[in-house]
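Re: your question about Suppressor of fused homolog

S., sorry for the slow reply, the queue was backed up all week. Below is exactly what I fed in.
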Amino acid sequence: MESGPPHLSPVPGTEAIPHHHPHPGVPGMPMPPQMMPMTTPVGLQAIYQACRRLYADQPNPLQVTAVVKYWLGGPDPLDYISMYSNPGDPNRGIPAHWHYVSFGLSDLYGDGRVHEYTGPEGPSGFGFELTIRLKKETGETAPPTWPAALMQTLARYVFQSDNVLCAGDHVSWHNALDSSESRIQHMLMAEDPLLQSIMSPMGTINFIQIIGVTAEELQAAQRWNGPGILELLRNVPVAGGPWLLTDMRRGETIFEKDPQLQEVVERGIETEGSNLSGVSAKCSWEEMEDSREEREESEETVRQRITPHESEQIKAELRRGLMGQHGSGAAGFGTGAGADWTDHVNHNTDRERKDSLSSSGSTEEVKPGELQRSQTMDAVHVKINKEAGTLLPLVMRGRLKHGRHFTFKDVSGNSAITFVSPRVMGAIADESHPYASRGPWLQVLIPEDFLEAVIKDLEELSSTEELVVPKQYRWREKGLTISILPDDW
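Result:
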């Protein structure tokens, strides 16, 4: 079913919203709090009330509405996006801005039409809604609608991937958020500074604010962590300020505004490591010929595309195992190094705990045999596209040096490559057999006495403007070759 373009309408508030196809509930599930067919659904009402506490003078703001709702076959998961006018706080240097709030990532209806009702104790739907605070242009009297389209795109990602967006996440976009010539081409996620978490009859709802950032600021968040960069943005008024506003006309990065902030990032990486645990990339790997010839002729190596089932198993091991008990998720867009798997919880909170490739006590733990039998190799050749490959210095210095892991997952689903530290528990690779695979998933263990040499040799990859590809690095005595190839390879 095709839907028309979003249209502007006043917020229905407490007016009647007819149910276009009322559901009796989910069979076998406890019924949620009952809603009369002609009253505002309680999930909607909970968000409206939270907004009214901030905007008592705007009971009926403009609202972008999908003509055909998602639950009627439309393409847009967000039923509504409200747009409020916020005067800011001149005394704190916070300018006037437009405040956008989504409706639809949480459970608005409680009748199973979009989200399964699981009770009030857990998250409502995905447990969050999106917001944006966009600085007003001089003389602007109506809010632009492009932020609503951006929010719909992010919502589609969440619905399609089941990956929630959390404060501290970053999203590679590679285009101006408003399709202009702006330098603001990527996003960080933060808690909305004024819309606090609320409880609805369907569960908890957090408000996650989108902050537009430059490529340099995104790279810093990738190399260090999102929360650290958010704090820097809060302390630079023109780059966001205390309420983390997005200014599409901002022409300077925080590092151009204050060069000393780059040193803050470098110190953070050196002392805390990086929270980026993986990216989608164009990548592949193969066993080197001299190693393959040493195999017994009866042993046949089977290489095939990662099936959806295997992909889910790898994700499960990465989430519950590689990332240990720290908590993790996935968020990201774009090409090359665009899809980012980000640890949501800073590892600094528990320095003594080691990263692990296998979890304990989980009834859902993936059994080793489920991803085919493991095999070891004496030499491997890893191939990665340029954009993702430029992260290798960070992988070594910000991840492996701190006892962590990093995964490149091929965008076509053909392979996955995980670099691991000897301190990562449960890996199929170990110091006696540093190259091991399970089906199309390769693990490369870099011993600590080899790591410094790798860091030194790969450091030039950090200078992306001067990097000419293809480029190959080979450590013959270690049996490791890494090739950096063009992005269109």
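The chain has a mean pLDDT of 82. The radius of gyration is 24 Å.

Happy to talk it through on Thursday.
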